Amino acid sequence: MKKKSRFKRLIKYIIFILLIAGTVYxxxxxxxxxxxxxxxxxxxxxxxxxxxxxxxxxxxxLSTHIEAxxxxxxxxxxxxxIEEYNIKDSQKVEKDEILAVIDRDAYYQQMLQxxxxxxxxxxxxxxxxxxxxxxxxxxQDLDTVxxxxxxxxxxxxxxxxxxxxxxxxxxxxxxxxxAPQAVGDIASNQAPIAVIADLDNLVVNVSVPxxxxxxxxxxxxxxxxxxxxxxxxxxxxxxSIAPFIDPTTKTFNxxxxxxxxxxxxxxxxxxxxxxxxxxxxxxxxxxxxxxSDGSLYIVExxxxxxxxxxxEIENDSFFQVPLGYEDAFFIDEGHNDVLDGEKVxxxxx
Length: 349
Description:
Low-confidence stretches: none
Order of helices and strands: HEEEEEEEEHHEEEEEHEEEEEEEEE
Radius of gyration: 46 Å
Helix content: 25-40%
CATH architecture of one domain: Beta Barrel
Number of helices: 4
Distance between the termini: 90 Å
Shape: rod-shaped
Number of strands: 22
Mean pLDDT: 90
Structural class: alpha+beta
Strand content: 25-35%
């Protein structure tokens, strides 16, 4: 019985081993007989462009504000109550036009007093001069009375000048941009009667970073300027370039005169553009086709080729095509999805 039981177990083991061997063989046959499947990645679709003929201006745009070249606070030279005030904001005035009149009574009385003193000394001078010619008065007497007469004359001239200052006049022709006083106010040299600006001569002062100093000063003859604000743009003319760098701000000042001042007004926020280098009639491409590191791709025989370079001239919108690639096809759409040497599919535009 024991031998028969052992034989049965042996038969089971043999059958189990045969089943495993058959399974392994079957799986091996299955995988070996299968047709191999390989993965072929899709070809990246791209669009290409060619360089076009164009111009590139290299420059900077900086924030500034509109100013008047002449903006003068009119301060009275004498103090007193304002009796007449003939101006208002935005009023145009001519040179020497009377803006305000200050109470003149005290200054008029001062003038009369100085006049009386002068006339008295003038009369004394004439008498002493006549006596001196007759030998009845010394030269010293004549010198003394002459000095007294001249001092009285100077006092009279000063009194007349102060009396004239009671009429506050415009020092220049222009436009009243501030009229802060009124009849009855006390005028003094501590506060202006008005502020006058020449709106026909508007300027901007531009603070330019020091890194542009050499580029701008080495191309003064070719510099171009414009000023824009509120969708209005005017060309501008160079007035001056500061000959030094401000050590606190690391900037230097450029002053420009606006060629069309009627488009602007004082105080407007503005952008001043300074063009310091230009190239015309060259092959250009848009900056949008470049990668973040500045490189780009061309297509040769349907294969992408990676190019690195430094443009001879560029601005925010365009760059000059590298030498030798004037007729190349540059990848536009898809330039961030390809690799060097990868086959590409050029889409129709």
